[in-house]
Amino acid sequence: MSSGGVGGRPRDDALDEAIIEAAVEVLTADGVDGVSFAKVAARAQTTRPALYRRYASPTELVIDAVHRVADQGRPDPSGDHLIDLEAELRAFRDGVEQARTTGLAGSMMLGSTEPTVVEAYRTAVVQPRRRRLREILDAARACGSLTAAPADLDVAVTMCTGSFYAYALAGEAPARDWPRTTARLVWRACGGDAA
Fold it and tell me: N or C: which end of the chain has fewer CB within 10 A?
């Protein structure tokens, strides 16, 4: 990934931003294999040499785009772990829908996807989300809100986001209250009380 201009040439921050935004658009529309310097340059209204000055390969550009997709922030803790679980799932749902990344997630399971891209996606997107969900459930268990001691919280974390992708595979859209119903289902399965 590029971090400065070549040969002392000053970087154009506005062009940098236009390129990465264009890369995210191409990535989410066409998948990893659809990203090329030509497509991104056209969408960013610049030239291919401008991309070559910043990136050694389209793979580097894809990795930067993956990090941009991941940069969606996280909800502020409320002090109520069930509310926090629902908020995290809502942020996940909204992020997937806004960036249209369901297909991007699927491309990470293809054998043809560059391993460095898959690793970037896991590191920047999947692992932080799973860690945040697990932290909420661990905190809820520690304070006694979740009482099912044998409940496997790793499975619970997978159930949280996995059900969203299951809808996508089935060609169905989850209901708008998916974050609430999923959070409460997982919460009850782990021994919590949920209205």
Answer: C
